[in-house]
User: Fold this.
Amino acid sequence: MSENLVGALERLVVGSVAITARAVAAADAELTFMQWRVLLVVGEHDEGRAVGEIATRMGAHASPASRVVSRLKRRGLVWTDKGDLDKRVVCVRLTEAGRDLRTRVLERRGRDLAEVIGAMSMTPTEAGAIAKLAQSFEPFA
Assistant:
């Protein structure tokens, strides 16, 4: 059973990434997976995120995360400033263009996910199991 469950989760993960890639393409945004992750993480809070926090969430070191932020900044999707309390901290925030792009991708992805859910019927117990599974992925999000 464990092997079957791992295989099912693998298909779920691959499908989820594909749905996200389709949503990014539909938004007419040429973004790498890492660039999308930065937009996703930074956009969670209006006050933005420090580069170190972004790196931690991406599972990367600060230097590669900083390079991704620089690329997004050149494209006008994020802006940076020094922290109020610690001038060594670089805070990253979405620009209006970055917020708009993030919203368009999330809306498209939400519609695609709703279509997947709509194509199947689930019992409340099955829906609860999926919600519990989704919660277990939270540390990786």
